[in-house]
Backbone:
């Protein structure tokens, strides 16, 4: 083959190939590595989820057995219930907090930059760090309850962290604190980009500030709101670090979440097939959020092009 | 007249914002104050309190005297591990992302939009879907429980974000610029060095800050793929809090938490604007 090439009248073609080799490598190696590992690894995990793998991956086919086993386990059912509760309340409350903060900061107040930095800093710090701190504050023997007791109000109770029914709310609190700054940043950007003419027109019509927000400004925030909801849901679905540091899934398994179940099955119980099945179920939950969002964005973009 | 009628609502706004700000700062204040209180002092009261005697020694113990498992070297080796993972992985993923972003946005080749779409899927895909394959790959390449393994993972996975950031920045560069340079005989790399990189500092700062924060704060891979002395600081902190559960040493632990959080907090203080830009760039796409 090489001989045939070299006898052809165009050796420049071969040298051109050599000359272009570094360029081809620079373009393709990182891109292919990234794309291929995403696809191959996903397929790999999906495949393992259909095998009887326990301690090590093995070949074989057990159909949906791993899935039914995971779905039937108490651990997973509690994780799903928790995810539903945690996901919905956390998203709604952080959305509300973020919106309120954005509206307040939008009132031309002094020290806006400083305040914005304060509300956003939790995002820059690891969940491991913030989870640890929250576990102290919420620990009845160390934190807020202890402080109030020491001040003399001994009947005060704030022991959600060790209360099976309430522990999940401590995760909601920490998660809101951690990420409503993110919602605030996006909302603030949205508020600042509202058309000035629109506001002027409403002012001429005699709209007060509350009416102005309700009728004119807030409706323009819908696209941002949906984006924030989707990103926060995505975060909720894969939450691991925060729970690991705050409650480690406890008390008992009261604050179990899907990501912890996956870790537990894979690396603590060495049930690789089931762990993989749980990971695939996580992916499916995520897709249930993302696919409608992508479809919505696609429609929006089409509309923007045609408008 | 107008000023006076406005005042009460302004006061209310400032009041609400300040109250929330205090609540937001409280956890940080608690760690800072506790890092300066002795263990006895904390044990007598609660985690919330003013230090009576500044116990600076907490920092010394947390840094180099503290025991996790059998080793008593403090948090220092784990900080070093995190730095040895975070710095190279940030540099590699940013550089590769810049080249990839330039290739998909300006150089253009067949299938570029497809491959770009797949790469950015990595932003959405949960880490849990990649845990087992990475375990197997690291084991088979002998990189299990090494910092090199973590650098490899973060470099490859980081490409999803860095390519996205750079690509979105580079699409705004007019294609004519590239076309003119090509007519003048400039190749892929020459255009990258001479035209693209000089235009890149704004996006590279965003990308570096984003990657550094992300990789420094990462926990799942650290705890899954490394053990003992090879762990990054996030994983070591969890091990540490389990270790002190028997004999509470909250003063020292607070100091350790502060030290572990310091690099990303500093980056946020210095480059907060760029951090936020990365946040919104990743969100709005």
Residues:
């Amino acid at each position: 083959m090489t001989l045939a090439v070299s006898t052809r009248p165009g050796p420049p073609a071969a040298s051109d190939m050599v000359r272009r080799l570094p360029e081809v490598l620079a373009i393709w190696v990182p891109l292919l590595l990234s794309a291929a590992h995403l696809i191959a690894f996903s397929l790999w995990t999906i495949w393992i989820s259909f095998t009887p793998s326990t301690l090590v991956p093995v070949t074989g086919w057990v159909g949906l057995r791993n899935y039914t086993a995971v779905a039937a386990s108490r651990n997973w059912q509690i994780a799903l219930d928790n995810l539903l509760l945690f996901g919905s309340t956390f998203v709604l409350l952080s959305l509300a907090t973020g919106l309120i903060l954005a509206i307040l900061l939008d009132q031309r107040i002094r020290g806006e930059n400083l305040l914005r930095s304060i509300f956003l800093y939790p995002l820059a710090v690891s969940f491991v760090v913030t989870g640890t701190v929250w576990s102290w504050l919420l620990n009845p023997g160390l934190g807020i309850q202890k402080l109030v007791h020491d001040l003399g109000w001994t009947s005060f109770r704030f022991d959600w962290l060790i209360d099976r029914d309430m522990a999940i709310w401590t995760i909601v609190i920490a998660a809101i604190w951690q990420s409503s700054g993110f919602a605030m940043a996006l909302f603030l950007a949205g508020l600042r980009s509202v058309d000035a003419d629109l506001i002027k027109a409403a002012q001429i019509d005699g709209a007060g500030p509350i009416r102005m927000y309700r009728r004119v400004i807030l409706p323009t925030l819908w696209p941002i709101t949906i984006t924030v909801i989707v990103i926060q849901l995505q975060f909720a679905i894969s939450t691991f670090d925060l729970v690991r540091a705050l409650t480690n899934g406890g008390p008992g398994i009261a604050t179990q979440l899907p990501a912890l179940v996956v870790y537990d099955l894979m690396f603590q119980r060495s049930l690789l097939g089931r762990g993989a099945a749980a990971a695939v179920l996580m992916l499916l939950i995520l897709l249930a959020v993302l696919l409608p969002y992508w479809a919505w964005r696609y429609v929006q973009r089409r509309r923007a092009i045609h408008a | 007249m107008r000023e006076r009628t406005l005042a009460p609502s302004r006061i209310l706004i400032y009041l609400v914002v300040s109250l929330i700000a205090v609540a937001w700062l409280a956890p940080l204040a608690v760690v800072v104050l506790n890092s300066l209180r002795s263990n006895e002092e904390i044990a007598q009261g609660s985690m919330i309190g003013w230090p009576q005697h500044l116990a600076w020694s907490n920092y010394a113990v947390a840094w180099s005297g503290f025991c996790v498992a059998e080793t008593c070297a403090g948090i220092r080796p784990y900080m070093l591990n995190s730095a040895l993972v975070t710095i190279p992985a940030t540099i590699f993923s940013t550089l590769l992302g810049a080249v990839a972003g330039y290739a998909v946005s300006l150089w253009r080749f067949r299938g570029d939009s497809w491959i770009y779409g797949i790469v950015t899927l990595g932003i959405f895909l949960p880490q849990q879907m990649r845990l087992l394959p990475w375990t197997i790959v690291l084991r088979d390449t002998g990189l299990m429980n090494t910092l090199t393994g973590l650098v490899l993972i973060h470099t490859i996975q980081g490409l999803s974000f860095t390519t996205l950031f750079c690509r979105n920045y580079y699409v705004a560069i007019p294609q004519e610029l590239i076309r003119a340079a090509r007519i003048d005989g400039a190749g892929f790399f020459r255009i990258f060095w001479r035209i693209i990189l000089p235009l890149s500092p704004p996006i590279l700062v965003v990308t570096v800050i984003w990657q550094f924060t992300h990789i420094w704060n990462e926990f799942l891979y650290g705890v899954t793929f490394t053990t003992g002395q090879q762990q990054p600081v996030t994983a070591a902190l969890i091990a540490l809090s389990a270790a002190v559960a028997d004999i509470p040493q909250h003063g020292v632990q607070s100091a350790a938490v502060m030290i572990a959080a310091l690099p990303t907090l500093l980056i946020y203080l210095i480059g907060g604007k760029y951090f936020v830009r990365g946040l919104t760039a990743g969100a709005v796409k």
Notes: Chain B touches chain A through 83 residues (CB under 8 Å). The two ends of chain B are 47 Å apart (CA to CA).
